[in-house]
Amino acid sequence: MSWNAPQGFAGQYGPWALIAGASEGTGAAFARRLAQQGINLLLVARRPDPLDALASELESEHDIETRTASVDLTSYDAPAKLVELSAGLDVGMVLFNAGATTRFDSFYDWPAGDLAAMINMNCHTVALAAHHFAPGLRRRGRGAIVLIGSMAGFAGSSHHGIYNATKAFDWVLAEGLWQELGPDGVQALILVLGATDTPSHQRMGVDFSDQTVMDPDDVAIEGLSNLHSGPVYIVGEHNRAILNYILTSDRAAVVSAMSAASAGLARQIHQR
Ligand SMILES: NC(=O)c1ccc[n+]([C@@H]2O[C@H](COP(=O)([O-])OP(=O)(O)OC[C@H]3O[C@@H](n4cnc5c(N)ncnc54)[C@H](OP(=O)(O)O)[C@@H]3O)[C@@H](O)[C@H]2O)c1
């Protein structure tokens, strides 16, 4: 799909963007759309090969520079690594993409290490890295901190309640950042996604056939076109309708509905 970026896009968000969780799915889609705007990219994920392949593709198609780095965002020192990697780069956008649930199991069946990893990636790494980048963005008077959220962050559920809780953390953190950074010309927001057809979900065996599923590139286009629409922007009209239900319904009913959907996905995954 073609995309006309808002006027002055590269000036506002360049010359460098850091994407945490960049190698595939929505992360790669954001990278491709930013590269089209001439923004240099610091691309981070765990597996180096897909990152390097994406970097080569983008450098061959666009007049940009890229850097890639293998970092496990669940590790306690991930924020320090992101700081180190970005040293000397004029970073205008920090986009935290990685963060999908890694399990569909009852809370008490999640290994404690997996719970801690989820909290580290979606809370500790996001908060401390944002804390590092925010002052530099304020000094520049432009740029963006973009958190990727989930509809799951608006209610508790069975099977990945810890994921929902970390996404609720990101939602509220983004709102605070939006309030504090906005007056200095820096946009902070959470882009909230619903079901999206990403390799990560495909590998897990999630079948979204009974839901409206978005394409990662459509998510990237709608998200990047609405960076000014913080503190919370829900990607996809159907997801905005779901959020309306979530926010206006009895909480017990919402949690039951969310849990029924999660339990269905868990059954599919465990039957594979
Ligand atoms: N897909 C959906 O239906 C859906 C729905 C709602 C919200 N979201 C949100 O959208 C975002 C992207 O989701 P996704 O489905 O594409 O899966 P994801 O696993 O969150 O993201 C995939 C990207 O992140 C990297 N990544 C994953 N874990 C990492 C780690 N520990 N350290 C460093 N990089 C890591 C992956 O590369 P490596 O594996 O090489 O590290 C890949 O580049 C997430 O924040 C998720 O919560 C997704």
CATH T-level topology: Rossmann fold
CATH superfamily: NAD(P)-binding Rossmann-like Domain
Q: How would you characterize the largest beta sheet?
A: 7 strands, parallel
Structural domain tally: 1
CATH class: Alpha Beta
What hetero molecules are bound to the protein chains?
NADP nicotinamide-adenine-dinucleotide phosphate
The succession of helices and strands, N to C, reads HEHEHEHEHEHEHHEHH
Shape: globular
User: What's the arrangement of strands in the largest beta sheet?
Assistant: 3-2-1-4-5-6-7
Distance between the termini: 34 Å
Strands, total number: 7
CATH architecture: 3-Layer(aba) Sandwich
SS-derived structural category = alpha/beta
> Can you count the helices?
10
Low-confidence stretches: none
- The average pLDDT score comes to 96
**Rg estimate, integer Å:** 18 Å
What share of the residues lie within helices?
A: 40-55%
Strand content: 5-15%
Task: Give the SSE layout.
Elements: H1 9-13, E1 16-20, H2 25-36, E2 40-45, H3 48-61, E3 66-70, H4 78-85, E4 91-96, H5 112-140, E5 144-150, H6 161-181, E6 187-193, H7 199-204, H8 216-224, E7 232-234, H9 237-248, H10 251-271
Parallel strand pairs: 1-2, 1-4, 2-3, 4-5, 5-6, 6-7
NADP nicotinamide-adenine-dinucleotide phosphate binds next to helix 2, strand 5 and helix 7.
Question: What distinguishing features does this structure have?
Answer:
binds NADP nicotinamide-adenine-dinucleotide phosphate, 7 strands, Rossmann fold, alpha/beta, 272 residues, seven-stranded parallel beta sheet
